[in-house]
Amino acid sequence: MLTYPEIKTNEELEILNQMVEPIEKFFGNVDSKSIDRNAKIPDVILKQLGEMGLFGQQIPELYGGLGLNATQYARLAEATSMDSSIAVTLAAHQAIGLKGILIAGTEEQKEKYLPKLATGEHIAAFCLTEPSSGSDAASVRTRATLSEDGTHYLLTGGKIWISNGGIADIFTVFAQTEIVDALGNKQDKITAFIVERSFGGVTSGKPEDKLGIRGSNTCEVHFDRTPVPVDNVIGLVGGGFKIAMNVLNSGRFSMGSSGAGSLKRLIGMVTEHATTRMQFGKTLSEFDLIKEKVAKMAVQTYAMESMAYLTAGMLDAGDRPDCSLEAAMVKIFSSEASWTAVSECLQILGGLGYMKDYPYERFLRDCRILLIFEGTNEILRMFVALSGMQYAGQELLETVRCVTIVTG
């Protein structure tokens, strides 16, 4: 039986709460309305985030990070979700931007890049999506060609919708490379590279004018014969697709705790409104329809939180266990529950919820992206279904083989 994981000691819980308290206080003073309106996170905010160590949450202490495990990271995601633009900026940096270095990088790569990434002195971005390759990640056209002297690759191509693309110093870039097998056959396979903006040939497009998470920087990134040392290959040449999938799979689980953190605050605001707003001689909270809405939102929030921390506990319990299936389930359920629940919060406020003077419309715009990025829910549903069918398929294959032998 799989028991629900708990933080091992009261001391660990107390340390975690002490860590969360100043972060929640900080985010309570962030002007999210201004960030949304100006479509930019002020530099002073980014600097303060770095000073609090929030750019290095899962980077080991050895490299200057906080060294948080998955459970602790999920708990901090609840706190940082108070501003969606900042939450996405932090997640794009560490959940995907630098994660390739963390899980597949060499010791030399970690020593070179992680310390400055941990402090926020350098910002990271994850460059996978292209105009011709969205959900079909294997069809990227960006190409890296090995130089004649074999010392570096020349990287050419363009990426779109890159979070942190305009502010990043370090990019994890996925590109096609030519692989020659033992028989001399050539084929293209994806390789992951660490690319510094300072290498040259790296340009960023104008920030995209987005529906939500407007303060997070999203733009095109182009590489024009950018020289990348062979030492900056992450993992094996030709092994980039697996790294990309591992990176994306490892970060999805925190969407549950992040979504739950946002909903807890919104539900609190909604219930306060419902207990004071009078209609037909009664408070809104006395109407059964309103009670039902709040009850459903509370149930969804509890489920999101439980799924996220169960998956986090599983990740913490083993030596890099494969929780990609569980993480996908967390992402699907949490993103859709958030979208529904935030819409219900706005509905309870009625016309007030539709006004920009209140945060509900901003949260609604912000949470819409959750169903799209880090794997669309449609693709993840296919992944969950196909994963579930694998065992049955293997069993059926064995049965077919046995029948073939008997009848053959």
Description of the structure:
This protein is an alpha+beta fold. The protein has 13 helices and 10 strands. The chain has a 4-stranded mixed beta sheet. Strand 4 and strand 5 (186-196) form a beta hairpin. Helix 9 (254-274) runs antiparallel to helix 10 (288-317) and helix 9 (254-274) runs parallel beside helix 11 (324-349). The chain is globular.
List the helices and strands and how they pair.
Elements lengths: L9 H19 L3 H7 L4 H9 L18 H11 L3 H14 L1 H6 L2 H13 L4 E4 L15 E4 L5 E12 L6 E11 L5 E11 L5 E3 L13 E12 L3 E2 L5 H12 L2 H21 L3 E2 L2 E2 L4 H30 L6 H26 L10 H8 L9 H31 L1
Parallel strand pairs: 1-4
Antiparallel strand pairs: 2-3, 3-7, 4-5, 5-8, 6-7, 9-10
Helix pairs in contact: 1-4, 4-9, 8-11, 9-10, 9-11, 10-11, 11-12, 11-13
* End-to-end C-alpha gap: 43 Å
Q: Over all CA atoms, what is the radius of gyration?
A: 23 Å
Low-confidence segments, given as residue ranges, are none
Topology order in helix (H) and strand (E) letters? HHHHHHHEEEEEEEEHHEEHHHH
Which shape, going by the Cα principal axes?
Answer: globular
The main sheet comes to: 4 strands, mixed
Mean pLDDT: 93
Q: By helix and strand content, what is the structural category? A: alpha+beta
In a nutshell, what does this entry contain?
With 408 residues, this protein is of the alpha+beta class.
Q: Keyphrases for this structure?
A:
408 residues, alpha+beta, 4-stranded mixed β-sheet, 4-stranded antiparallel β-sheet, 13 helices, 15% strand, globular
